[in-house]
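Feature request, filed as a ticket because there's no other form

It would be nice if the structure record came with a short human-readable summary line next to the tokens. Right now we just get the raw output. Example of a typical job, pasted below so the devs can see what we mean:
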Amino acid sequence: MEVPEVRYARSGSLRIAYEVFGSGPVDLVYGRTAISHLELVWEEPSVAEYFRELATVARVILWDKRGVGLSDRVVGTPTLEDRMDDVRAVMDAAGSQRAVIFGATDTAAMALLFAATYPERTLGLILIEPIARGAWAPDFTFAPRREEVEEEIRLSDEDWGTPAHIDRLVEVAAPSRKTDVAFKRWFGRVIRFGSSPSAAAALARMNLAIDVRSALPAVHVPTLVLKCAGDRVVREENSDYVAARVTGAQLVSIPGHDHFFWASAEPRAASLRAQKAFLAHLPATVADEDRVLKSVVFADIVGSTRLASRLGDQAWRRLLDSFLAVSHAEALRFRGRVVKTTGDGWLATFDGPTRAIRFAQSVRDHAKEQGLDLRAGIHTGECLVTDEDVVGMAVHLASRICDSAGGGEVVASRTVRDLSVGSEVRFEDRGAREFKGIEGPWETFLVTSR
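Raw output as currently delivered:
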């Protein structure tokens, strides 16, 4: 098979590089971990063989994440929402309506969110050693501690792309190839051409902030999780955690010690067997497309009864109608919709938390210009969505959070904060609260900046 032609998809103002190869009956959108380079990957025989085998059972759409490889470089750190937008853009450009989404390690978090948010476009998930949370926590003890990652960043910053740096990486990621001079020379080129030291450091710090644990129960598509007990990069407990919380997920253990399964023959063969079997036995029926992960915004006007009494019914109705029209327009601008009005407020939904936050801030500012004092509550969770309504615990929680907010405040749940990793949004801890009718407690945060 010849090296595929590199193409570009437009995602907002950026161009995302991708390749299409293979003629199998299923589309497989393949996002590689951390640093990649679409053209250089084909120079390593083990990688080329791996992709040639996948191409016999799938139409593979291989892409470089924004900021690395042949995709546009970026200022700042991309959010998980940005990455999901890039997947949709690549799928659209490649003519893929529905696909299996592949995610390895850090890319797996985005793949999980994509499946929960866009089940209508997701046939299934293939995850290699997925990371649901990037940093150690008392309730997540098998992730690395921040100081360990910062030390790795410091060392890499000093000798990025040098033989010493590559030796360290290969020692843990592909120990079976640590004496292979040609392999290390190739891998060094991928690292140097794929990313700069500063961009890699920013990505590593973003990965530390990842926490998509709350979204796992909202994934309802067929899922294959591959792990390796001997892996020194990602502990196998990460894969166990994800597989146990995604309904119906298959967990397959791959032999060896290589984080890169393709680097040696036996792990590569075992990985390919598992992936081919999974792709060959995808169910004919689609996932429940009405159950989706949504970011819900509940908002209302503080003191509306008093204001309506002062203005009179007609003037109040004109003011409220004008404001609601602005709210509908702003929802469309941030790729959401106002589902229903509630007298002096409304319920709106979005496909990502940062879009929901930006919308809430925008309409709050518009309200202030019209002499209105708006408050908003935001939560991201699984909802049952119809053409006319949206229901679920996420809706009730967003409503309760809104009730806890003061005039002019936008208050969010911890889930919203966790899923906004990489954004410019800042949060102030409001502490844990208990809400009537909802099992808790729930941590809430005041949104303090754009």
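Something like this underneath would help us a lot:
The first strand starts at residue 7 and ends at 11.
The chain has a mean pLDDT of 92.
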